[in-house]
Write a structure and sequence with these properties.
heterodimer; A: mainly alpha; 10 helices; B: 10 helices
């Protein structure tokens, strides 16, 4: 294929992956899945019952892998039955989102019912209002992952089948959402009542913010907050992962000869090196600007 | 998820030995019934394989519940993935060497792998969970039954060549792996907490088994030796019955189910 066409396809794949990453993180934030879930689960036990959705399906990688594998399988079945690609991918994503909705429902009901002695009620309006949002984000994530997988197979001639490819990208988007976006919700949003950057004192465990700008805080308030930074940055992280890892083999196509293949390996190594040095510099600059916690030490001495 | 069960043995209304018998016998009967009846009566009997897989899923979920009650919080999903990981190895080995006896050989082989991993976990990693060896054996066998059951339902047979071309090279093994794995790990993960009840967790496992069955049915629609329509319909029925049973127990167990409302007051919490 023309290198220019391949680069265009890679750009499209990168764009779809960016949207998938952002919607994946916001989907997990609406339901408090993954890392922030431990505090949502702990809160009622510390006498802080709440109106926050408790979506403990599993970690983000397995639940996203489930969505994407179901979407990929359904789409590949429909395509082999003669359906058009867009229709097949859309129906696959709809079925995946519906199944994801049942998993979200059982985890909200189950986790809340298992906190009977801590008097955590089950609010049906929370389920009714949050479930369409969760399923909507799940649809966007699954559809975009299917677009990424399909383009890689159909245009860039990747040897894997659609269900397997979607499964692998599902795990990846879940892993990146869990490691990148969760910090913004778990460390910042849940503990806005303590000083920024102060860490989580054991005495504050479970004492998550339960009241919102208006009324009682719920998952959608959290999604609104995370949509400002955590979601987009997750999208960028996943988009970059997909784009940069694919870009090197598109530009330096290993099928054209061993020498070009080795150039792609060198290009990949260079990208990893540049990112590592860049990250290290950001960390050092942040430490110089903000850390360590001098004020806390002074306060302890004064006490 | 920092709170993982009570740190001791799990209380059970249904004796665990009954669940083992249900999973092992029900699973193998379902798989063999699908294999023979597809030959005798027609491809629409392939749905029986998925019913066998549901028996394996319920057994696996019960075993995960027992072992995870010893304080595994975030370890619950890992154990579910481990179950299907051991299952894939055992299933491909068993079906490759066993012919018609494949599922039985696969389950025996899985039990051996599970036992070894259980012994390693307790003796080498020193996890110190009393039922680790037994649970790992059960989880591996349940995962294997789930994989073979769903595969049989997808292609109408468990003979290695058909499973290889219809399930593994097409990549449908990915959806079996994750739909089966989540059906085993999700029920206890979703019901984790101080007031978790065995029957509610197992009702959830039935419901998730129904979903795995529907997905197997979707794949079976394009397979020559299997029929998807009946598998999807029975899967929907299992899902509906499972969800109703689960919601009935949620209503029984919850502190309060309310359409909407404020948080419990301080007086209520004391």
């Amino acid at each position: 294929m023309e290198p220019l066409t391949s680069m265009g396809v890679m750009a499209l794949i990168g764009a779809a992956a960016t949207i998938a990453g952002a919607s994946e993180d916001l989907e997990s934030d609406v339901g408090s899945q993954s890392n922030p879930n431990s505090q949502v689960q702990l809160a009622p036990q510390m006498m802080y019952p709440h109106r926050i959705f408790n979506k403990a399906i599993s970690g983000e990688p397995p639940s996203n892998a489930l969505m994407c594998a179901i979407g990929g399988t359904t789409a590949s079945v429909l395509m082999s039955a003669g359906a058009s690609v867009i229709l097949a991918l859309a129906i696959g994503a709809i079925i995946a989102a519906a199944i994801h909705g049942t998993y979200a429902t059982t985890s909200y009901f189950g986790r809340s019912a298992s906190q009977r002695r801590f008097k955590q009620p089950i609010y049906l309006d929370i389920l009714r209002s949050h479930l369409p949002v969760i399923m909507g984000y799940a649809f966007i994530t699954t559809f975009c992952i299917l677009v990424v997988s399909y383009l890689m197979i159909a245009v860039l001639a990747h040897p894997f089948s659609l269900p397997l490819m979607a499964f692998i990208w599902g795990i990846t988007v879940g892993a990146i959402g869990s490691s990148t976006g969760d910090v913004h919700y778990g460390a910042e949003r849940e503990f806005q009542n303590v000083e920024f950057g102060s860490g989580l004192n054991a005495a504050n465990s479970g004492n998550i913010v339960r009241r919102a700008e208006s009324g009682l805080r719920n998952g959608m308030d959290n999604s609104w907050f995370c949509a400002k930074f955590g979601g987009p940055v997750t999208g960028l992280a996943f988009g970059m992962t997909v784009f940069l890892s694919g870009w090197i083999t598109v530009l330096f196509d290993a099928s054209k000869g061993d020498a070009i293949g080795w150039i792609s390996v060198i290009a990949g190594t260079l990208i990893v090196l540049i990112l590592t040095i860049w990250n290290r510099n950001i960390e050092v600059a942040a430490r110089k600007a903000f850390g360590p916690y001098k004020k806390d030490e002074e306060a302890e001495v004064a006490a | 998820m920092s709170v993982g069960g009570g740190g001791g043995g799990a209380h059970a209304a249904i004796p665990h030995n009954n669940i083992i018998a249900f999973g092992l016998v029900g699973g193998l009967v379902g798989i063999y019934a699908a294999y023979f009846l597809v030959d005798m009566l027609g491809e629409y009997m392939s749905f029986l394989g998925a019913l066998g897989a549901i028996c394996g899923i319920v057994w696996g979920a019960a075993a995960v519940r027992r072992v995870a009650n010893y304080g595994l919080g975030t370890g619950v999903p890992s154990i579910g993935m481990l179950a299907l990981g051991m299952g894939v190895v055992a299933a491909t080995f068993g079906l490759a060497v066993g012919g018609v006896a494949g599922p039985v050989i696969a389950v025996i082989f899985a039990a051996i792998i599970g036992l070894v991993i259980g012994v390693l976990a307790n003796k080498v990693l020193k996890m110190g969970i009393p039922i680790m060896e037994q649970s790992m054996t059960e989880i591996a066998a349940a995962g294997t039954i789930t994989i073979i059951g769903l595969s049989t339902s997808m292609v109408g047979t468990f003979l290695f060549d058909e499973v290889m071309t219809g399930v593994i090279t097409t990549g449908h093994i990915a959806v079996i792996f994750i739909a089966g794995g989540l059906a085993i790990l999700h029920p206890f993960n979703a019901n984790l907490g101080a007031d978790e009840k065995q029957d509610r967790t197992l009702a959830c496992a039935f419901e998730k088994g129904g979903i795995a069955m529907i997905v197997a049915g979707i794949v079976a629609t394009i397979m020559p030796l299997a029929s998807g329509a009946l598998t999807i319909l029975v899967g929907l029925a299992v899902w509906y019955v499972g969800f109703s049973a689960f919601y009935k127990r949620v209503k029984r167990d919850a502190y309060m189910i309310t359409g909407s409302g404020l948080l419990p007051s301080k007086e209520e919490l004391e």
